[in-house]
Protein 1
Amino acid sequence: MNILVTGGAGYIGSHTCIALLEAGHSVIIADNFYNSKPKNVEKIMEITNKTITFYEIDVTNAAAVERIFGNNQIDGVIHFAGLKAVGESTKKPLKYYYNNLVSTIVLTKACIKYGVNRFVFSSSATVYGDNSVPFFETMNLLQTTNPYGETKVMCERILSDVAIANPSLSIAILRYFNPIGAHESGLIGEVPNGIPNNLMPYITQVAKGKLEKLKIYGNDYPTIDGTGVRDYIHVLDLAEGHVVALENLTNGVHIYNLGSGKGTSVLELVKAFEHANDIEIPYEIVDRRPGDIAECYADVSKVERELGWAAKRNVYEMCRDAWWFERNYKE
Ligand code: NAD
Ligand code: UD1
């Protein structure tokens, strides 16, 4: 298939492009490089030894999107392009609602106009809010704590309504848990803007000496050791999950959790990182981070049952590959 990957130069998108190319598909990337660099596209080509067509466009620009659909035979769309900084979304909500909603509307409109029926959307476990774990797809979604999370809830709603009105559409909504790690080449990985908000990039920057020590946000949660529990998934497993979802799409909307199904605490992840890489990570316990929940992990039985997909890589591999990328990375 010929797949349009919006946000394909970003963290999850670039790994998914590799998985798509390795599975024999062709890739067209549309990215405005707001949070990524054009050289990521070159690195994908270097890793796979395959060529990619790419367009530097903003996918909220309907005319630019339509030109891509008009000039290429597209069989499916994977829509990664979006803004994802939770903290910034509380300060600039309109920027987040505009970018994440308008891009989704523009793309689905183009799909309908050009008869492209396969659509895969990047959602997030954040849509579950503070439900009780494990989170499963049919749960009622609870209020998220920030506009970023609300954009995901709203896009899910838009796509569900559009699918009802357009029965030939096949839409997969993939709710990612916590993707970490990197491609084993060390060429592509997660490059946060400024001081990282997320745990793994913070740890790798402490390991590199760029940051002094990790601040652990609270050790008084009702969890195994008091620190927050999350479901970490290797970004390559996540990438492969997209290929499986895309290849097995049938009409209607299908929601899947993409996680490992296992909870890991902050302290457990720190220990796994130290073990996997033989590096000590200094840390201190500080106050809880507002908006955080105690535990977040997936029930993955639906995706296993319906798509035959399960995450294969363990936290040691995630820690090893995240560190390998950070060690190799130069600004
Ligand atoms: P990322 O920032 O690395 O990648 C997003 C890419 O989209 C970037 O290359 C950026 O330049 C591009 N982009 C953003 N807005 C655009 C626009 N209007 N037009 C064109 N390109 C645009 O983020 P990521 O971690 O790879 O996340 C990909 C998707 O997955 C996002 O939608 C994000 O919300 C979602 N998601 C991510 C996580 C996570 O932990 N990383 C978790 C759940 C969901
Ligand atoms: C965060 C976002 C969430 C988003 C997800 C994936 C917030 C409040 N939530 O979730 O919306 O979908 O990323 O991008 O930002 N931690 C520390 N010290 C740190 C960083 C994190 O102790 O420096 C802890 C957190 O308290 C949490 C765990 O590590 O318990 C994981 O945090 P993080 O990587 O930010 O992911 P989430 O909180 O799951």
Protein 2
Amino acid sequence: MRDVAERWGYEEIRTPTFERSELFTLKSGEAILKEMYEFRDKGDRHLALRPELTAPVIRMYINELKMAPKPTKWYYFGNCFRYEEPQKARYREFWQFGTEIIGSDSPAAQAELIALAFNILKSLGVKAELHVGHVGLIRERLRVANVAEVQINTVMRFIDKGERQAVIEFMDEIGVKKDLIDVLLFLLDLKGKDALKEARDRNIIAPDSDAMKELELLLEILEYYDVDYTLNLGIARGLDYYTGMVFEIYEAGGKLGAQNQICGGGSYRLAKLFGGDEIPLTGFAFGFDRLAEIFNVDDKDLERRGVVVVPIREKNADREVLKEAIEIASLLREFVPTHIDLMNRSLSAQLKYANARHDSFAVLMGKNELGEGKVTLRDLNTGEQEKISVVDCVARLKAYFDLN
Ligand code: HAM
């Protein structure tokens, strides 16, 4: 994932594990505290373990890196904490791999990020389905009807959770007219490539709507990137800061069950709220644990991959053999993970350890061999072994690991 992000010109950034809790409540209100690990430290500061990395990254940008050339393109990989009911692929501590573009939410920036996410999954061989939406369309519609911003946020949260009935009841309760409720439900149900055309044909979205124009251009650029998408205006996202395009990616190979959302993101605003100049932002984050779950990596599947250097010591402290072993290990450590006994174990115990760890080769060295300037190179996969010179041994292992 790092490789792909770096080839697209993104640089890694790290932020602290905890932040002042207001960083997260400023946008979402105190209600978000219920969903976070928050506490007071000895200086009575109200802190929170980060529930995500977008707000921390933007805070860091404003505090430290405002002068970076724009657009600034960052990626991160870090642990996050949310006070949720744990279940399969939903944890209280989990990892995100994400990116943020600071300085642009143009259709070109949006498309680049979606295409990057798509390419990361392609490089991992993950089967996925991408849904693209735009919260601006729904927000715009509600704003025109004078629905207050906090109420719009509540509606968006119900939409995000797929609670259709709650959307209807809440809008009814705050006095939204039935016509508008119907329009909203119609928008939520629109899916597929022709959705925009349908909304326009029915006069539900004005053709000169900024959100509409932006979305149309984005979809066109996605075609240039050869990215397959489903247009889904029902995507609302759980976080409050999104202002424009939003997208979600779901695992499509049936490996994850209910928690199959592996990536989410979109365009948003946060900089002014955090005390900086307002600046357009776009980003996404992958749920790393969910990706790991797809591969279901098992110890047994790991390839044999390292080398163990085994000094065969006759007595407990045969310094000469140990010295030589360390010298060879240092040569091997230039290109392959190399282990050396740290527990003064017998030859068989050292080999057992190497097998358990899936090493590929053992380099055995005893006093006699050393006298001849030789070692025994044993292939742990086949059990074959050969006495060769130290130079040949290193060269042979180098050739092997360059290839494998
Ligand atoms: P999010 O959708 O809340 O977005 O989280 C991103 C991804 O993290 C989800 O798609 C999911 O795969 C994973 N995830 C979330 N909660 C859990 C959990 N409890 N256990 C395991 N995995 C989880 C964000 O966090 C935004 N900051 C994304 C973003 C970046 N938007 C703009 N820039």
Protein 3
Amino acid sequence: MKKLIISNWKMNYGPIKAGAWIRAFRRERLPKDVDIAVAVPFVSLPAARASLGRASIPALSAQDCFWAEEGAYTGEISASMLHEFGTEMCLVGHSERRAFCGETDDMIAKKAGSLQAHNIVPVICVGDTAVQRKKGEHMKVVKAQVAAAIAMLKADTKIPFVIAYEPVWAIGSGKPCVPQDARDMHVAIRGVLAKKFGATTSEKIRIIYGGSVDTRNILEYMTTMGIDGALVGGASLDPRNFGLLCRAAVPA
Ligand code: PGA
């Protein structure tokens, strides 16, 4: 399975800086056998698209969307709007949205379903908190998040979905989850997918890891069985550093 690395800018870079980031990143030498995407704020998607020109790398991702098609939902952006200018992926259920915007599993399931229906690959973020891990509840919590989020999704389609396992305590903390622990969680997540879609199909769904991934540890994640890529925040804010990280993701 081709690995996937996504840069998540979070709430950084308006249109001016977004254009500059894309142009700088386009100058980087990139590995061929890795899919690369960049998740940018809504307002910066047009500038990122314009700076990409005809280039298709990195693929463009949004960071959120709303589930309804259109209507009286002030401030929201629908999947069909994102599709209009070629957004290929979209994050949903990032732990920061669960924490700061009160997103629930049900909302996340509806968002993911709407994205897939509009030919955008949903990247569903799930993850345990430090307290849940301490209590030994982390597997149960994450499995339940996954089961809820995939309720409306199909797996046997040209528009697959991606699961991003991001332990909340590892995000932005400089304390990444040890690859073996991440692998154990990925195995558990794949079990949930297999239950719904069957073992063969579940093997084709990418489960990526996120949380303090950087240029030094990326290779270890990418070479750990069952980890199909990475979602990178802080270490991807500088386009040159993200280029370095992408190169470091493949064995020399
Ligand atoms: P981080 O963020 O790489 O800065 O830990 C990852 C994420 O939240 O997607």
